Amino acid sequence: MSVGSNIDPYNNVRNALRLLRRHARITGISTVYLTPAEDRPEQSAYYNCIVGVDTQLPALQFKSSVLRPIEDAMGRIRTEDKYAARPIDLDLIIYDDVVLDTEDLELPAPEIRTRPYVAIPLWELLPGLRLPGSDETIADIAGALPRGKMEPLEQYTRLLRKELLQDEHPES
Q1: What's residue 171's pLDDT?
Q2: Distance (Å, whole) CA 165 – CA 27
Q3: CA 86 to CA 79: how far, in whole Å?
Q4: Domain assignment present for 138
Q5: Predicted structure pTM score
Q6: Is there a domain that residue 170 lies in?
């Protein structure tokens, strides 16, 4: 799943992952990248990363009963403006080998093919991935996208991994 924030991102990404850990096991955290806001140069930059999770819930149920409530609890307000600043954005981008195209969810997410801050961290976590329903590899997709505007936040990434991956016991 992808995670992004450009309103207090240092705290909001970390807090979102803490909340997520109550509902699913976090299996991996890519490098967190600082990236410019999409089509909004006046906005603050985003923290973006990809997080691997293990859940027994089907994709749509995971999105509606786990991801959306976390966003709501953290003050995410959805508007017509899909590029509005946000405290947190949690999106399923790939879910095992599921191919899905509904009003609420498209898997694999089309953004994988066009957004470096989605494809490159996904490649980092799953270098051998072949997109479900396709012959495309994440290595080919990530390799074709520009990295220039992505600044790795290595110290912050280490902090998240230490806190959220090394602790075997989720918060109660």
Answers
A1: 45
A2: 7
A3: 11
A4: yes
A5: 0.93
A6: no
Show the DSSP H helices in 51-110 as ranges. Answer: 59-62, 68-73
In this structure, the dihedral spanned by the alpha carbons of residues 44, 45, 46 and 48, taken in order and rounded to 10 degrees, is: 180
Question: DSSP string covering 12-24, please?
Answer: HHHHHHHHHTTTS
SS3 79: coil
With H, G, I as helix, E, B as strand and everything else as coil, classify residue 160: helix
CA distance 29 to 13: 11
- Does 172 map to a domain? no
Q: What pLDDT was estimated at residue 48? A: 98
What is residue 167's predicted lDDT score, i.e. its pLDDT?
53
Kindly state whether residue 95 falls inside one of the protein's structural domains: yes
Cα distance between residue 17 and residue 51, in whole Å: 9
Here the CATH number for the domain that contains residue 111 is 3.30.70.560
Mean pLDDT per block of 10 residues along the chain (172 residues) reads 97 98 96 92 94 96 97 89 88 96 95 96 97 96 92 98 72 42
Domain that holds residue 28: 2-165
Stated as kind and residue range, the H or E segment containing 117 is helix 116-125
How many separate domains does the chain show? 1
